[in-house]
Amino acid sequence: MDEHPVDTRAFLNDIEGHLLVAAAHAEGRTAAARFTARLDRLTEGQRAEVEREFEAEYLALTRLSWQRTAERGRQLRDEYEETYRRLRQRAFAYCLLACALLSATGLVAFALT
Fold it and tell me: Rounded CA gap, 82 and 96, in Å?
């Protein structure tokens, strides 16, 4: 057997990517066929060429949309990570302040007794 560990998450992401691309190709072909069905003056060769071009344009637009979505996802992740980091720092500062106040209160109480 292969001694390399399988990264299941990466493997599933690859499969999902291939399925998405295959679905986009099918959607492009379907949209192209619908488009050319209305153009009854085209020869079969012209129809095939228009369908190929339409599908290629459809896939290019789909790819661009996916890239924009991925970029926005990265931007949001960065923003959320920064917000979370600031919240953690603030919570840590409040905990330190609370510990300092409790320690000061304890010292004052001890000194008064």
Answer: 21
Angle at which helices 8-37 and 44-112 cross, to 10°: 140
Element of type H or E holding 48: helix 44-112
Tokens 């960065």 label which residue? Answer: 78
What are the structure tokens assigned to 62, written together? 């789909």
DSSP 8-state secondary structure symbol assigned to residue 41: T
Total-model pTM: 0.68
The answer to whether the beta carbons of residues 34 and 58 sit under 8 Å apart is no
Phi, psi of 83 (to 5 degrees): -60, -45
Residue with tokens 């996916």: 66
For the stretch 40-93, pLDDT in tens is: 999 999 999 999 999 999 999 999 999 999 999 999 999 999 999 999 999 999
Predicted pLDDT at 1? 53
